[in-house]
Specification:
There is one protein chain. The protein is an all-alpha fold. The protein has a domain of about 70 residues: Globin-like (Orthogonal Bundle), CATH 1.10.490. It contains four helices and no strands. Helix 1 packs across helix 2. It is flat and about 35 Å long. About 10% of the residues are buried.
Length: about 100
């Protein structure tokens, strides 16, 4: 069973390559955001990232939201399953 360390940005391994990669990528993003914010708490970085993604989602055309989402690490892409769920679009708008 993987060790769940209480230390922020710890290296948790699952022995599943895909999971380990996305955990590492997500931790890297959160660590970078923490440095930019000047706050070492990962939950603050998470909330800043989540808020930014939701603001982008609400302002970009649906096609661009899906393009952006495809470039994000899996864990970041799935923030609350809501990044691309809240897209307001008319039928067929994605194909215009």
């Amino acid at each position: 069973m993987p060790y769940a360390s209480p230390i922020p940005f710890c290296n948790i391994t699952t022995d599943i390559t895909g999971f380990d990669r996305t955990i590492h990528e997500t931790n890297t993003w959160l660590r970078d955001i923490s440095e930019i914010l000047g706050d070492p708490r990962p939950n603050i970085a998470y909330h800043a990232l989540r808020g930014t993604l939701f603001a982008l989602r609400d302002r970009l055309p649906p096609v661009e939201v899906f393009d952006l989402s495809a470039q994000l690490p899996v864990l970041i892409r799935g923030l609350g399953e809501a990044f691309s769920k809240g897209i307001r679009s008319t039928p067929g708008a994605l194909f215009q």
